[in-house]
Amino acid sequence: MSFLILIHVLSAIIGIGPTFYAHALTRKKQSPEELRYSFKKMHTLEFFPKIGGTIAVLTGLLLVIIGSYGSFLQIWQIGALILYILIQIIVIGIIAPINKKLTAWLQDPANRDASSLPSEQQQWLNKVDNLFYAATGCGTLLFILMILGSRGII
Fold first, then answer.
1. Which residues are CB-neighbours of 67 under 8 A, at least 6 positions away?
2. Cα–Cα dist 114/117, whole Å
3. pLDDT tens-digit profile of 65-118?
């Protein structure tokens, strides 16, 4: 059981961790060249949530099934699952399409020599950065729920 908990905690950190780092990559006052580099790094980090997040969900469900955490209907377990789903909606459903538009603009040869982002693209970047803060907030609450809930505090 301890090994399963270890795998669950590590995969959750690895799975959600890049969301906490995304703010450094989507800071609002970047040149197009800096943003191209940031997006290249972000693309590399996308691997971790796919694997870590999947393992975290599977091990979490397994812990509920075989562990002594009580009913799955406890508020902390439902809350943690809802927060995890909300993070996925924010990152995959909202941020990813905006990032795709930003990437297309950044890769367009006509924009190669731009020294700053046009207003529309800057608004996209600002929205992405703000959404990453929302996802980070959800991730922080998720970890709080999991820690307090698994200790029987909530």
1. 1, 4
2. 7
3. 887 776 777 888 889 889 989 998 999 999 999 999 999 999 999 999 999 999
Q: Rounded CA gap, 63 and 90, in Å?
A: 26
- How far apart are the C-alpha atoms of 87 and 100, rounded to whole Å? 18
DSSP state of 6: H
In this prediction, residue 119 has a pLDDT band, given cuts at 50, 70 and 90, of: very high
Minimal CA–CA distance to 115: which of 38, 41, 35?
Answer: 35
CA neighbor of 101 nearest in space, from 87, 89, 111: 111
Task: Give the whole-angstrom CA distance, residue 30 versus residue 126.
Answer: 11
Q: What pLDDT is stored for residue 59 in this prediction? A: 92
Q: What pTM, to 2 d.p., does this model score? A: 0.87
Contact of 32 with 116, CB cutoff 8 Å = yes
One-character DSSP codes across 37-84 = HHHHHHHHHTHHHHHHHHHHHHHHHHHHHHSSS--TTSHHHHHHHHHH
Structure tokens at 28: 């609002």
